[in-house]
Amino acid sequence: MSTRLFAPPETTRLPLTLPPVAPAPSSPGFPFLAAIAPVAASLVLWFATGSVLSLAFAALGPLLAVATMLDARRQRRRTIRLAEAERAEAFERLHRQIGLRHLDEAADLWSRHPPARSLAREGGVPAWGRDRLAPVVVGSAAVESAIRIEGSPVDERDRAAVDAARRLEHAPVIVDLRDGLGIVGSPQLVRAAARAVLVQLAHAVAPDLVAFTAPDTPAWAWVGMLPHAGAGTIAVVEAVPCTKPGATPSTRATRVGHDAEAAITVALASEASSLPPGLGVVIEIDAPRTARMLRAGDGGAPAELAPETLGLEQAAEWAEQARAFAARSGAVGAVAIPALVPVGDLPEPDAPVRSRASLRAALGVTREGVLELDLVADGPHAIVAGTTGSGKSEFLLAWIRQLAAAHPPERVAFLLVDFKGGAAFEPVAALPHVAGIVTDLEEAEAERAVLSLRAELRHRERVLRAAGVRDMSLLADDAPLGRLVVVIDEFQAMVQRFRELAAVVADIASRGRSLGVHLVLASQRPNGVLGDQVTANAPIRVSLRVMNRADSIAVVGTDEAAQIPVDRPGRGIVDRGDGTPVPFQSALVDGASIESVRRRFTDAPPVRRPWLDPLPRRLGPDELAHAVAESVGAAARTEGVHTGMHRTTASNAETARADARGSGRPASAVPFGLVDEPDLQRRSVAAWAPGDDGPLLVLGAPGSGRSTALAAIEAAMRAQPATGVTRLGNGRGADWAALIGLLGGHDSSPRRRLLVLDDLDACFAAWPEEYRHAAVAALERLLRETRGSGVSVVASAALGHRLGGGLRDLFGATLHLRHASRAELAHAGGVADLWQRDEPPGAGQWRGRRLQIVDAPRPPADAVPEPETVDFAAASVAVVSATVQRDLADLRALGLQPTLLAAGGEREVAAAVAALERPVVIGDAEAWMSAYSLSGRMRDSARLVVHGGLREFRALAPASAGRTGAISLPPLLDDADPECWQVDPGRTAARRRWKTTETSLNVQSGR
Description:
Elements: E1 16-17, H1 32-49, H2 60-112, H3 116-122, E2 136-144, E3 149-150, H4 156-166, E4 167-175, E5 181-184, H5 187-204, E6 210-213, E7 232-238, E8 262-269, E9 281-287, E10 290-295, E11 303-307, H6 312-329, E12 341-342, E13 360-366, E14 369-374, E15 382-385, H7 392-406, E16 412-418, E17 434-439, H8 443-467, E18 483-489, H9 491-497, H10 501-515, E19 517-523, H11 532-536, E20 540-544, H12 549-556, E21 571-575, E22 582-588, H13 591-600, H14 621-639, H15 649-661, E23 670-677, E24 682-688, H16 690-693, E25 696-699, H17 706-718, E26 723-727, H18 732-744, E27 752-757, H19 769-784, H20 786-789, E28 791-797, H21 805-808, E29 813-817, H22 822-827, E30 843-846, E31 849-853, E32 877-881, H23 884-893, E33 899-901, H24 906-915, E34 920-923, H25 925-930, H26 932-941, E35 943-947, H27 950-956, E36 979-983, E37 990-993
Parallel strand pairs: 1-3, 5-8, 5-9, 6-7, 7-8, 12-22, 15-19, 15-20, 16-17, 16-18, 18-19, 25-28, 25-29, 26-27, 27-28, 32-34, 32-35, 33-34
Antiparallel strand pairs: 2-4, 2-11, 9-10, 10-11, 13-14, 13-22, 20-21, 21-22, 23-24, 23-31, 29-30, 30-31, 35-36, 36-37
Helix pairs in contact: 1-2, 2-4, 3-5, 3-6, 5-6, 8-10, 14-15, 18-19
Keywords: ATP-binding, Membrane, Nucleotide-binding, Transmembrane, Transmembrane helix
Protein name: S-DNA-T family DNA segregation ATPase FtsK/SpoIIIE
GO molecular function: ATP binding; DNA binding
């Protein structure tokens, strides 16, 4: 039995089921109770009556029991006979239903695959389709049916019914001739079978797809009448001369086996051994109704079948009818498409076309002649599909070269985007028409180039508006605007990498027609990648060879592109937008043809580039100043303002930002870099306006340029009048004093001040705990009051989360530099898509756009006054020391006569102090805290010197002496060893130097 190739359509009738087997009735048993009951009754009567006759009733029990058992067996046999009769009737009905359904199934198969004899007998209209590998009927046989019976067989009748349902008699045997067909037998029979195959193929395949070839003999003369003249070939090959035994062999078989040009090979032979190898199906014909079929790779026994044959007269008559129908329908006269089309063989205009109303170019050859596509008339956009090795890149090169040859650079320019590494468009890179080539090797450059196209659309809208026209083709000849063709190879890869670019392409697709921007989108599998907005505006469809039928149908509406041979690069199907797919062969360009176009337009001016170069890796101060000046000039031209006033750098930056954002900024805005705005086709000056933006936080990894950013802002602020800068980082003592001075609002510096803190997340880490908490609290207060206090704050940190939520949220603006990872940048609040691993120092993002900070030299820091030396020349001096013995030796070395205060020695020291003119008393914190009376007197009248920490300070100094502004802490010392506090009566503590050398102390004896 042959394998079923095609299933019939689904039926709506009820499924067939095997008749159920009725359960056999159980065999009746002997009724013992019925037999015993009369015996027991007779015994009871005998005992009751004493009559012997009553014992006769005992014999009725066995008789009734036997009669009952015999009747039950009779009823069981009757029930079984009735069930068998009903099941037999059910099998008869089942077989009738199987027969009817087999008739329907066979009729459906024959209607979908009519035999050659039926086609020749009925004539009619050929069913020419676009599949040149249509299956054919080679005979009839019993094949496997699609009908199935539900239920499990339990006996031979069930199995017979199941086998009958599965076997479809006299059904067509359908084969696919993709790998060729061999027919073996007598010459008359094999030729008749071959004629049947050829007529079926000629009936199913359109004339422009294949051509039939056969030996040049009278037996095959009818093949020449067929109207088929396509590129593919269906070749009939007589591998061994089909002549009678003993006749002289003929040599008319010029081709044996698979031909390079053949889509299908039908080989005829008298013996199977004479067939060429590699045929997919071989049929051995023994008699007109007897044959065997063997499929390559089956490995089983040959399948028996009745071969399908057709007479010579019938075949010739059908060929004449087919040719007449082709003549009526206009299908006659097609020529074969060449396998190679040099671009030099295509026509070119004698002079460059300067009209904007056309972008016509000859790209290849069809059966009707030269293939010409016009992005203006047929477009405005095109979709190109093709798998690897199909010639897709060569087709794009041919399109670019032909457009460049026909139109000058001022009329058409190209933006080429290649997401296969950039090598595809390298041959045309030197053409003056090419505005630029963008590759996936530089992802950021590719993204910004495509984003710039939106700005290009706005630019073209302004040009058309100024010219008073609505369409590109209506511009005057001298208008400085040409058409732009954007060619994107591997569009699918670009969209997968940059999802947001799909919206940009869709925007261009919807607005590009009137603005003169055309898209040529190429991909291996465009199906499902292009949105509805793109496909609706791209009527030009081109598909070179693709792997799947669905991809071909999605692009050109037919599966022909999936059937293009692998050895036909450049062969494709094109739909110009009229819904008619046409096969073509793309032109092949070479270096010489491209060079000729380049030389022809070598004197043409450079074309307008639709995007700017990326930001420089280093931005010098002069470049920023030039950008500021340009932005000021643009703003002045836009507003019609002409002034001779000299403006400061800050006001220049402010004007630039006002022009960029359409809103005013105060004059305090300071420029610090350039912002890349590819969607606006420009660079803007990045400026920070403290009054509007609030405190600024600069975040970035080590080496990202945080200090450079702070230096740029500091330099710009110093250039503004009436503005002072306070930079922390001059030592703990100076930083504390500067921070508290700003907090107290009693600073005598200019009315506006800038506080600069580098490494904010670590700058207070080494401070004593109380001072660290106080400094953070003071900074938080400054950040809250910055807009009203006149103090602006700019700080930097490596990681924002190290600052804590309370401090981090007080910054109104954040400048993101390079971060260690994309996730870290996103966590810090930056735009993760702008992250780049190899960003140079100073590169980052500002307000969601790429930024490069100016590499400005760091301004010199303001001089920080050194603390004065502690003065012991006072009426009395009380020294609280953490290192009493060392400090006692220092005092003696200075010529002083200090009195040592020990714990419990207050009375002796008090007496000594009373006797001295200028007493100097030294002791540790415990000694002073235990000397209550002496401490009280010295605290009120003596100069206090504290050489130690807060414990020593609080042991003797009054509470008011330790208040610095609003904070109850004395000034912070850089180092408690060389520095100390000096507290005069009624004054707050002052930071002093303890000593550096013995002569450094200010000892003024006699004062």
